[in-house]
Design a protein that fits this description.
Order of helices and strands: EEEEEEEEEE
Largest sheet: 6 strands, mixed
Number of strands: 10
Distance between the termini: 37 Å
Structural class: mainly beta
Radius of gyration: 13 Å
Helix content: under 10%
Strand order of the largest sheet: 2-10-9-4-5-6
């Protein structure tokens, strides 16, 4: 089983990034998927989640209206579109499956 994140980096406040998570080794389309993040000195927190059939999505209050989660069950991917980024969005972002798989994480830094 693998979850591989990509798309992170450095962006200025107000900018956008799109993270992607490619899954393999399990029946991706059968499970909910989510993105989490962990900032330095803080606990890991849920950012966004999506059901297996893409019919329901949930977001942390801190990212509502700015972040959007997408999944493509044909490609086994789940993306996180992040717009209007703020310095407080700086963190390592992790892809997660409903059955407990985690990616290694990818750094997102929002700074001028």
């Amino acid at each position: 089983v693998q979850l591989v994140e990509s798309g992170g980096g450095l962006v200025q406040p107000g900018g956008s990034l799109r993270l992607s998570c490619k899954a393999s080794g399990f029946m991706f389309s059968a499970y909910s998927m989510s993105w989490h993040r962990q900032a330095p000195g803080k606990e890991r927190e849920l950012v966004a989640s999506v059901l297996s059939d893409d019919r329901w999505k949930n977001y942390a209050d801190s990212v509502k209206g700015r972040f959007t989660i997408f999944r493509d069950n044909a490609k086994n991917t789940v993306d996180l579109q992040m717009d209007f980024l703020k310095p407080e969005d700086t963190a390592v972002y992790y892809c997660n499956s409903q059955i407990g798989h985690w990616g290694r994480g990818i750094q997102v830094t929002v700074s001028s």
